[in-house]
Amino acid sequence: MAKDRYVAYVGTYTHGSSVGIHIFDVDAEKGKMVERKVVPINNPSDVIVSTSGKFLYSIADEGVQSFRILPDGDLEPINSVWTGGMRGCYLEVDEQDRYLFVAGYHDGRITMMNLNEDGFIGEIADGIFHKGIGVNITDRSSMPHVTCVKVTPDQQSVCAVDSGLDQVKIYRIDRERNKMELEDILRCELDSGPKMLRFDRQHKFAYVLCEMDNVIEVYEVGARNDDVDPFKMIQRISTIEPDEKQRAAASGIEFSPDGNHLFVTNAGINTVIIYDVDKETGVLTPLFHCKTSGDYPKAVAVMPDNKHFIVLSHETDEIFIYNMNYEDCYFLQDSRPIKIEQPNCIFIHKL
């Protein structure tokens, strides 16, 4: 019986020697990645594969770029479209592949782009600039900065994480009018710097990673009605030790494919912390944390075997693969680092 085939798409900043999206063949059983080719594109700082698995969308200096995914995982360019604002930083698609959502760090904008069935990115459906100003206790910008966009599990709304305002704005998706309408705001701790949001595999809980506070805020996601708040905070847990706060910045967050564990990277102190996930309550329990190789572990991804995980060390231009031992609470570097200039994002795709 043939085993499943996977590729990994790694986006980079291309103002150095890198030229675009690096395609790797992935051996999930052995925890290995072998680079096959690079597809030219300007600064693909985030990439995402459509729900259908047929297309890949990427951030680009020009806006957003679409590609057709060929049977071997290679990418064939389709079209490029401006997003109506400054260069984006994060992408999301809905389950119907009807919309592509773009987060704008530089201009504090969330953009909703129309998608066609043939993979072409259509015109802008809607776009909203966040307004206001946050606090500036630490040395960081408190202007609006949208760092992540995630569609809610019921597909009714999209969450826009704003690190400058310390908020997660929730917009209802009006598919009849192709509009987004603000319906709720999650107000995180002041100066916490929310950066990323993930929903658990069972779609019952939301996890907001706060970069400045180095914490994860856990929310129970309930039914939407006038009497019940659909997002109820149930836990706030640190990603670091108390004496590490001045040197650390929570950076990446991802679930293991089986949903049993949550992985978080901490830049500055260069660590990964792994949590056990209680699937019934959503509560996180720290399993262990450990130092990683390289500098600035910006993103993390867990391979389909649930045992190997990948860390992109942005500042030292390397990809590291680690082998997890959950029972004895340690991980080991599984192979030599892969050299790649300024890796920024990774998406593992099953062919």
From TrEMBL:
Gene Ontology CC annotations of this record: cytosol
Family listed: Belongs to the cycloisomerase 2 family.
Protein known as: 6-phosphogluconolactonase
UniProt cross-references to Pfam families, sorted A to Z: Lactonase
PANTHER family the record matches: 6-PHOSPHOGLUCONOLACTONASE, 6-PHOSPHOGLUCONOLACTONASE-RELATED
Chain ranges passing through the membrane: none
Gene Ontology MF annotations: 6-phosphogluconolactonase activity
Coiled-coil regions listed in the entry: none
